[in-house]
Write a structure and sequence with these properties.
Shape: globular
Largest sheet: 7 strands, mixed
Radius of gyration: 17 Å
Distance between the termini: 29 Å
Order of helices and strands: HEHEHEHEHEHEHHE
Strand order of the largest sheet: 3-2-1-4-6-5-7
Number of helices: 8
Length: 237
């Protein structure tokens, strides 16, 4: 297993090589995983359909899943250079996985989404267009704006989510309806500014980004439908 220093050097070298070859993607999608083996192929297929015409890559950040999620990703990566894997040994946590994936991204625009197929990948082109055309830093796929749906949440999780949103809006002093969304797209420079202050603990990286930013971030919310999980189990504990 490579040391963190060597891994970081490898990422910088890879990014430099991509720039030199003119193949730097426009969008990197970061997907944290833990026991999501059966969702990997459908997710990549969904990204391929949704992002037709866009130069993209996806980075799966796997917390050494016992169900061999990493093996499923490696199998796809061997056939598709747009698919990458970071396998974390001895480290766990949703926020930490997102941070490592964002650090490894080489695209100027980065998205974070779940692997459980509850996030609608077809929203990504619209989110990218909004980021390009509007004076915003982050585009959030919101479960709580007009036209959205959180039908995929069970009643206990829905109640917990609403409470977490109220607390987050109070603590971070943001006007977002869904600062706890796990599906958002932003300029990579926004992440870089706050990267050193972000905590690898916890499970909602968007809230940490909003709270850690040295200046208030310009945000835009678009409605999304949060669907029911098809397979696997929630990582919320």
């Amino acid at each position: 297993m490579s040391t963190p220093g060597k891994a970081a050097t490898g990422r910088r070298t890879a990014a430099a090589r991509e720039d030199a070859e003119g193949t730097r993607p426009e969008l990197t999608v970061v997907v944290p995983t833990r026991n999501e083996r059966d969702n990997v192929a459908p997710l990549v297929a969904g990204l391929e359909r949704a992002l037709c015409g866009i130069d993209w890559q996806v980075i799966f950040v796997d917390d050494d899943s016992p169900d061999l999620t990493a093996t499923a990703v490696e199998r796809l990566a061997s056939r598709d250079p747009r698919v990458r894997l970071i396998r974390r040994i001895g480290r766990r946590g949703l926020a930490g996985a997102c941070i490592e994936g964002l650090r490894a991204a080489s695209a100027p625009c980065v998205a974070v989404m779940d692997a459980d197929l509850q996030h609608d990948a077809t929203l990504l082109p619209r989110m990218l267009n909004e980021l390009r055309s509007c004076a915003v830093d982050i585009v959030v796929a919101s479960r709580y704006v007009e036209g959205a749906s959180a039908a995929g949440l069970t009643p206990p999780r829905a109640a917990l989510s609403r409470l977490a949103v109220r607390l987050a809006r109070l603590l971070a002093r943001v006007e977002l309806e869904d600062p706890m969304s796990g599906f958002f797209l932003m300029r990579r420079a926004v992440f870089e500014v706050s990267a050193a202050q972000l905590s690898p603990l916890g499970f909602k990286i968007l809230f940490d980004l909003l709270a850690s930013a040295p200046q208030p971030l310009r945000c835009l919310e678009i409605p999304c439908r949060f669907d029911a999980r098809r397979q696997g189990a929630s990582k919320l504990d």
